[in-house]
Amino acid sequence: MGYLFVVVFLLLFIAGFPVVYAILLPSVAYVLIEGLPFGLLTQRITYALDSFPLVAVPLFIFVGNLMNLSGITDRIFRFAYTLVGRVPGGLAQVNVFGSLVFSGMSGAALADIGGLGRIEIDAMKKRGFDPAFAGAVTASSATLGPIFPPSIPLIVYGSVTSVSIVQLLVAGIVPAIICTIFLMITVLFIAMRHNHPRAERWPTAGEVGRDLLPALPAIIAPVLMVGGMMAGAFTPTEAAAVTAVYVIFISAVFYRELTLEHLWNSALLTARSSSAILIIVAAAALFGWILAVEQVPQMFAATLLGWSTDPLILLLIANLIFFIAGMFLDSTTATLLLVPIIAPPLVMAGVDPVQLGIVAIFNLMIGLLTPPMGLSLFLVANIAQVSIKSLLRALLPFYVPLLATLGVLTFAKDLTLWLPRMIQ
Amino acid sequence: MRLPVRILNIVVVIVMAGIVIVPMAQVVMRGVFGLPFIGAEELTRFLLICLVFCAYPLVVEAGENIVMGEIKASLPRAVRAILNVTISLTAIAICAFLAYVTTANISKNLDNTTPTLGIPFTIFLGATLFGFAGAAIIHLVHLRKPPQADTNISV
Fold it and tell me: Which residue of B22, B30, B43, B52 is the best one to mutate when testing the A interface, meaning the one whose CB has the most A CBs within 10 A?
């Protein structure tokens, strides 16, 4: 019955049912068939959202929306251009570096693509870059968003596994920097081979200072947030609220570009985006409960641990599962449905849940770049006005740094865990 | 539909403002004045529930449910039309059923309240009822022309 239940969900999902109904239909049918009390349906769904850590999700979406609507994104882009525009690859390097800075305030890959990515792709096209290449750099660098704190997928992972969200967020810092370096090296090689345009000269200290100043409040935000969390001054949710107020403040007072209309539109957009994500979280709680009743996680754990009890082998298997899942499912759905099944046996075998979280989310982010259902691919192709085929061709070299980062995360766990260990 | 949507927009923006203000106020009250206000966390969690369910009819209205529509989009037009109507009918049935179940749940727990702030169960689960009932109505209005895009939507 448990497996049939999962198969029905997958069939509905593939048929194009909204994810929430693809989850709810078999769940409601299960409750009816098994004769369970109906009250259980609404209680499971509503109480899944009765979670303080999940409040950070709308708050970080709000921050991303505010940044895109109030001109902060432009300042980040300008600063990144001044700083790394001369490095071979020019605007492509700016694209990668800018994404790292942007991800310090926004926690979603698609917010990066829709905001900063749009500016970057337009600028690169104007400078004569191949639109497909511009799209490929944007899509690959957007994977940084959900790894570098804040991160919406890591918050969802933390709420599912009860792992410390502070530790998860802090654990993402080093992998994001490693990934940035790998991506910039890749861009450098491609740029040297194709002789891509770049800034005519290195910036002077005065120019760096001039463009740093407007971007500084945006750059300081993640430092304040992570510092506050590590010092125990506030929880991740409170950090998200503080960041939101901080972004409103700097947009209104420092940049003077925040209008009431921006604020209204950001809040409205955030409410709808949050509802679309969190209604799935609510439905998945019911789904997860039914899977638990059917002992699916236990069966899966027994099978997995029957193959091996070596943490590294299990982590490699988890890599494969999350990578394939990421090709078909969006990150929230995949996290909510797979993590409760996969995490327990791995943790039992000795895999660190924080490392697993980073590995899982990074796999799912790479999944956003892989067909058949890579959401980043579709969004970037739409913005850059290129075909999926040409975008995929341009993306091929970028899978190397992404997979190399994944390799580092899998095999060198100390790199991921040394920062979180400091706050244990 | 315009007036209800406009009113709902105002409601969700107010709730969103509350989600920003309450934790921020808690940080200030605790950190600056050493006076944390009891129940802030419960209130924030309640506001999150309100936000998700009150905004859900707006999500349905805008066709913004997360969906992987690649395969559906590649199907012949007639098959796609049948599938769209099936999806709408399923959505109406599920939302209406959950709204009914929530109503029954509320009516059985009229005296219950939340632990710290004492928010009545009618209000606590009221958001869930509103969300599913509103979504069912909008799906019904859109039945002949499902709003859900065939292309992928995510956040």
Answer: B52
Contact indicator for A79, A93 with CB cutoff of 8 Å? no
Residue A103: per-residue pLDDT: 80
If DSSP codes are grouped into helix, strand and coil, which group holds residue B120? strand
For an interface test with B, the pick among A12, A21, A331 (most B C-beta atoms closer than 10 Å) comes out as: A21
Which pLDDT tens digit goes with each residue over A35-91? Answer: 998 888 998 999 989 988 889 889 988 988 887 777 778 888 888 888 888 888 888
Cα–chain center distance at B111: 24
Measured torsion, CA atoms of residues A343, A349, A352, A356, in degrees rounded to the nearest 10? -40
Predicted structure pTM score = 0.85
Closest CA to B54 of B9, B95, B22: B9
**Tell me, what's the ipTM?**
0.93
Cβ atoms of B128 and A42 closer than 8 Å: yes
Taking CB atoms and an 8 Å cutoff, what residues of chain B touch A233?
27, 31
User: So what's the pLDDT on residue B155?
Assistant: 42
Nearest to A275 among B55, B97, B102 (CB): B55
B45 at interface of A, judged by CB pairs closer than 8 A: yes
Size of interface A-B (CB pairs under 8 A): 194
Q: Which residues contact A84 (CB under 8 A, 6 or more apart)?
A: A93, A94, A97, A184
CA angle A213/A216/A220 to nearest 5° reads: 160
Q: Chain A contact for B6, CB < 8 A?
A: no
Pair B116, A60: CB distance under 8 Å: no
